[in-house]
User: What shape does this take?
Amino acid sequence: MLASYFFGDPGDLPPILIAHGLYGSARNWNVIAKRLSGTRRVISVDMRNHGESPWADSHDYADLAGDLADVVAAHGGLADVIGHSMGGKAAMALALARPEQVRRLVVADIAPAAYGHTQVQFIHAMRGLDLSTLDTRRDADEALKAEVPEDGVRAFLLQSLDIKARRWRLNLDVLEAFMPKIIGWPAPEGAFEGPTLFLSGGASDYVTPDHRPVIRAQFPNARFAKIPGAGHWLHADKPREFEAALDVFLNAPD
Assistant: This one.
């Protein structure tokens, strides 16, 4: 079972399940999870090979969807599911494979499509750090700066560094081996008929009008919205606007 973190108390509606993206963790979503939990139980998870969840020898979307299905089954059998990037693809795969487990689906800044931009360069950068020489997070930040000059990306990656244990909370070897599957898409069959929101960053190019036909084919009740000024990490760039969009969509009458 994935490492799971709980916010709020059960209510009349099913829980909200949050699946983070590549190199992330449930802790990236703590503030949003707490704010969404006023009237709902919220469950955020560390995906396999991330955070405190078990490490595994495989990492494809059938695996990730199965992990999420186990969490939903353990907590009532039905959930509203929010997934960002890699977590968004896992959430889509869950909804297509187990539509009876998903009431409403939010896909944050990703499409059911293969992408050409690998993220393996960050694995090489993380693996290249000599953790035995680093005593503080500031040391790690300085050491990583040459390979990852963007302050925000570097801060995001360093959230997965356990500086005291001198280890990454990421299974870098398996994530590198499965990178083609992570940035790809297995094109599962079926359709999810439930309400679905594709919520994108206005400054991101991850979801384009060209993606809409394939989205509509498998998510016929999809709606589309953009958050102006937000990039791919829209929940971090514009958290209040992101939360407002979720609140409207997840709590709208059936």
Summary: The mean pLDDT is 95. The radius of gyration is 18 Å.
